[in-house]
Write a structure and sequence with these properties.
Aspartate Aminotransferase, domain 1; disordered C terminus; homodimer; 4-stranded antiparallel β-sheet; 14 strands; Aspartate Aminotransferase, domain 2; about 425 residues; alpha/beta; 2 domains; globular
């Protein structure tokens, strides 16, 4: 029809995986594909009372425009909680309330990225940061990671090869998709590099509170001497995602500029949602809620690890997350997880093929499994079905040469698959 | 501190006017500066009951992630209402629920604008579209308007001079800031030009329902044969702005691409807010609410027009809006509305200097007055104070040569003042 769009729209397409995953909305499907928190823990009744109280007694404020920065009491509560949990020293006036962390990512893309700028990230990295920032047409530079976090030597080497490295994006706790957590030593060494090179870091920490074992580690921000780290956090994984409430914490001058961008993006986040969460935190013990969720997610992780151990062939390697919502599996070389997903969907079970988490593509034999949203029995049943589909796939193509096996890895390369 | 930001950040600055207007939050200030709806009409009690019901009975859904497009019943309600009021034929699957119309603007900027593209707009135009789209570094081309709307000959001439005209942005009903409404004839002729040239139009209609007199006119979209018009509408002015709920209506392929952009921007709009407004519209008569608001705003407009007539010198020209929230005043040549604002703030009264509504600057002798948020007595008192400040300013600088009078119009020019 000849309407001319912005050039950035070239690479934004609806993904075929997303189409496949639409079936996961059918109740009979056991879905390990989403990142949905378990809804049985949403405090619906408590929030019903709180919403009623706010709207009856303070409706004119709850329903009116408010400031871009956010509801002042909530900003104080977020700062206090963040500092206690992450060993940081943010003040309330460095907290910007956002409409989910996804908005925090959008704002950071706007703040930092020109076309062709390099963004460094873990390999694999969070799927939705790729979609969010591809709008700004950066070049993605993936840095290898292992079970202790980003490979620091590789980071330095990649930085040396960059023309305009503008940002580093990392998820140091229970990463999505890998489930991995950075060691203390790796955090320190990473921040030494950052400090020396003066490159801004987006530290995204949606899962840090969902720790099943071991001790909490300080945030990267705790080692930041130059105001280079911007911290993103959210209520979506520790409370309720549907309220779309998250925060961004940054020091001047980044903070003020981000506020101006947020004003142009959506003026401010829902006043009612902000007042509800603030009053909830005043009245109830959010930490207690988090402990309850964590206990259940731990059982579910254990159920998934046990099922993988029992059902999957020995060549399948999986991570063992100490928290969060996801684990990561590497299938035998040559197995294409998309083809496996096709067969799994026919068996009413789903996951996300791993390639989507690599901004430059490839790694087609990997997959992400979410364990937070299904009870243990269904987890066991689902893994059994995936193992069955995998066995079938390998049987039909035993030499890795037939359909379902990756014939040409390079065909999967190419910038910017969201 | 040496952190390198995106180039787009060069032109985004906190405005000095915004700083001046911070005083308007003091309760003793009579502010004509905001665009705030009157909070006494927010249905706090009704929404309290509705929120309680939704959260008690359907909390797992209201608090969980939901689809990017929006809550299905709400999309159906919006389509039906929009078509009835604007003479359009949108289907529910062409409605995208957004976090305020501001987000609709952001998404349209992302969809269409590359650096250097031309955006055509009314002169003056909506302040916040300038801030929103300057992020994408377009060139603003202002088209003169009169009391019947955009000057069509001037539009054609401006289009002929453009290299890459990508978008036309217009507010045909009770425009912000001018209060003007396009005539039927002007709408038709505008759409003939658009149809012939194939240029997308963003038709922003936040105020259309707030009509005080005369008959509603069909939307530009009603004359759109090629799917070129994207319609923006909002609950902020007819219901409650604090819920941040608005919509964007577009035909394929623009719709699908906008959904992908929204997904990268904030995933989806608050599920609870959407369910609340949907249930409210099911249970209550929103049209009745709108009639009530409109009656009051009409009285306030009349009060403001009467006060302006009584208090202001004859050279001050004002528009006479048939609806909406704003009117527009042109002060005598040479008077600088910023300087006047400084004096007004000292007298506890405020407005927005008009220059901010011209993307290329200038027109420093203009001002926007909001009449929706103050009762008639305070409106009268406020206008009296402004008239007093104006008299004082003119007395002290009688020849237009001293402080407060525009000495060098060209100094105010320059692209992209938000």
């Amino acid at each position: 029809m000849g309407i001319q769009l912005a050039r950035r729209m070239d690479i934004l397409k609806a993904s075929d995986v997303r189409e496949l995953l639409k079936v996961t909305q059918r109740p009979e499907v056991i879905s390990f594909a989403g990142g949905l928190p378990a809804p049985e823990f949403f405090p619906g009744e408590r929030l019903a009372a709180i919403a009623r109280e706010i709207l009856s007694e303070d409706g004119a404020r709850a329903l009116q425009y408010s400031t871009t920065e956010g509801h002042a009491p909530l900003r104080r509560q977020i700062a206090a909680r963040l500092n206690a949990l992450s060993d940081t020293r943010f003040t309330a006036d460095q907290i910007l309330v956002t409409a989910g962390s996804q908005q925090g990512l959008d704002l950071m893309g706007k703040l930092f990225l020109d076309e062709g700028d390099e963004v460094l990230c873990e390999s694999p990295t969070y799927l939705s940061v790729i979609g969010s920032w591809n709008v700004f047409r950066p070049r993605w530079v993936e840095v290898p990671t292992d079970d202790d976090g980003m490979d620091i030597a590789a980071l330095e080497q990649r930085l040396d090869g960059c023309r305009r490295p503008k940002l580093v994006y990392v998820v140091p706790n229970f990463q999505n998709p890998s489930g991995r957590t950075w060691s203390l030593d790796r955090r320190r060494r990473f921040m030494e590099v950052i400090d020396r090179r003066g490159i801004p870091v987006i530290e995204d920490n949606p899962y840090g509170e969902l720790r099943f074992e071991g001790e909490a580690l300080p945030a990267l921000k705790a080692f930041d001497r130059r105001g280079l780290v911007v911290s993103l956090g959210t209520f979506s994984k520790i409370f309720c995602p549907g309220l779309r409430l998250a925060w961004l914490a940054a020091e001047p001058p980044l903070y003020e500029k981000t506020v101006i961008l947020k004003q142009g993006t959506d003026l401010h986040t829902s006043t009612l949602s902000q007042m509800m969460v603030s009053l909830y935190m005043e009245r109830h013990d959010l930490d207690e809620d988090v402990r309850r969720i964590t206990t259940v997610y731990r059982e579910r992780r254990d159920a998934m690890l046990a099922a993988l151990e029992a059902e999957m062939p020995g060549e399948v390697r999986v991570t063992r997350p100490a928290g969060g919502l996801f684990l990561w599996a590497e299938l035998p070389e040559g197995v294409d997880a998309r083809e496996l997903l096709g067969r799994c969907v026919a068996r009413d079970v789903a996951f996300v093929p791993g390639e989507a988490f690599f901004p430059n593509g490839g790694h087609r034999n990997t997959m992400r499994l979410n364990f937070s949203n299904m009870p243990p029995e269904r987890i066991a049943a689902g893994i059994r079905r995936i193992a069955g589909a995998l066995a079938e796939l390998r049987e039909q193509a035993p030499c890795g040469a037939a359909a379902g096996f990756v014939r040409d890895e390079s065909a999967a390369q190419g910038a910017g698959k969201p």
